[in-house]
Structures are given as C-alpha cells and as structure tokens.
C-alpha cells in the first residue's frame, strides 16, 4: 500500500535526523504562522506567543528545510 510506504519512508528519515515532511509544506505552514503581516486566528497567535525565542528559532530553521543535525549544530546544541 502506497500510504504505508510513505509512512515507512518518513520514519526512516526521522530516525536519521532528516526532515520527514517536505520542506515546501513546512515553509508554507510556518510562513503563515510566523509572518506578522498575516492575520492569524486568535488560537494560532496565542500558541505562537507561548513559544520561547529559542523555540521560534527552531521552527524557522525547520521551515527553511534544515534537518535535525543541522539545526542542532547551528544552534550550538
């Protein structure tokens, strides 16, 4: 089944520290969330305000397509 193969590929990528979701999808989702010019709904804005600056930095890096290892190295983790 094609869906199962997709899940398996995502799991292999996640285990390897790679992005399991296409960077283009993440970029669009995070751009909407992080763009102050956008009009986020009240719930989205509330959730965004709950994040620390460090968490926002991680989200931006994920949206830029960085994998786990690159994010960690770039943030000195």
UniProtKB/TrEMBL annotation:
The name under which this protein is listed is DNA-binding response regulator
Q: Which organism is it from?
A: Streptomyces beijiangensis
Q: Name one GO molecular function term.
A: DNA binding
Could you mention a single GO BP entry for this protein?
regulation of DNA-templated transcription
Q: What PROSITE patterns does the record point to?
A: HTH_LUXR_2
Gene3D superfamilies xrefs? Winged helix-like DNA-binding domain superfamily/Winged helix DNA-binding domain
Q: Does the entry feature the keyword Lipoprotein, yes or no?
A: no
Q: Which InterPro entries match?
A: Sig_transdc_resp-reg_C-effctor (IPR016032), Tscrpt_reg_LuxR_C (IPR000792), WH-like_DNA-bd_sf (IPR036388)
């Amino acid at each position: 089944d094609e869906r199962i193969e997709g899940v398996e590929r995502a799991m292999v990528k996640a285990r390897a520290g790679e992005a399991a979701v296409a960077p283009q999808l993440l970029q669009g989702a995070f751009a909407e969330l992080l763009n102050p010019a956008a009009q986020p709904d009240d719930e989205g804005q509330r959730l965004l305000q709950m994040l620390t600056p460090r968490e926002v930095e991680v989200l931006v890096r994920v949206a830029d397509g960085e994998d786990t290892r690159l994010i960690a190295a770039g943030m000195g983790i």
